[in-house]
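Question: Hello, beginner here. Any chance you could explain the protein record under this note? Any guidance would be welcome.
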Amino acid sequence: MELAEVKAGVFTVSPMLGGIRMEGNQPVEKDGMAYSLGIDYNLTEGFGLETVLAVGVGGYNLSSNHEFMANYCGGLLYYFANNPAFRAVARHLMALEGKTQHNLLYTVGFLFQLAAATPAPAAVATLDSDGDGVPDYLDQCPDTPLGVPVDETGCPLTLTLRINFAFDSAVIGPEYRSELDRAAAFVRENDDVPFILISGHTDSRGSTAYNQRLSEWRAAAVRQALIADYGMDSSKLISRGYGAKPAGRRQRHGGRPLHEPACRTVVLRGTARISPLLHPV
């Protein structure tokens, strides 16, 4: 169990009860009861378990008998919680005039910290410039359009499937079953996202109109597979074709991109609303 905190800057009250054992012929009962009430102020913080050692000199006056006295003591202070603490002290009192008399004073009790309630720290405003719910210091995509669902890094929820469709084809080969598994897992993990946009792409060969239709067929093929084979909600899946996907550097064969198959992809993306152009194909 973690030890409680000894607070700095607070007063403490410590009622104590115990006894005293007197040696020799002193003008008091040999044994008696002792009690005290201590009021202290903590200057610094401390541990939840403390030991106390002290020495001192002084005197006492008992029935006109005045004696010089020295003493030392040891004690233990243990916090069960912030309140209360258990306190035990044993003190050896030595009357030094004439024959040295040895007396023992022992007390046990509790200590209570009179601490004022600590105010809750003021909330610190966290800057979120694009309003996506991810603070700027964590946001890896700081300019996300308002309303676009994002992941924990602040980037749009996106999954690119590694389905390299054959040229002029929208058929998903059996070797890409694992990619469909990834797509189904992506949809399930983002169950709170209203819609999942499935976007299809082609390479640059073929006319613009034909590539548009082929990209729509590819997106629709993935959508249908998720519905038929994985039981996905059809109303949540939206397929859309985007025609030829822009490629990188160009090379031989009539200036076509170097990696044509990489352009024949399907991308899943979370979206919060359906625009007039985003409808099931």
In short: Residues 249-259, 276-281 have pLDDT under 50 and may be disordered. The CA atoms of residues 158 and 274 lie 17 Å apart. The chain has two domains: 11-114, 158-271.
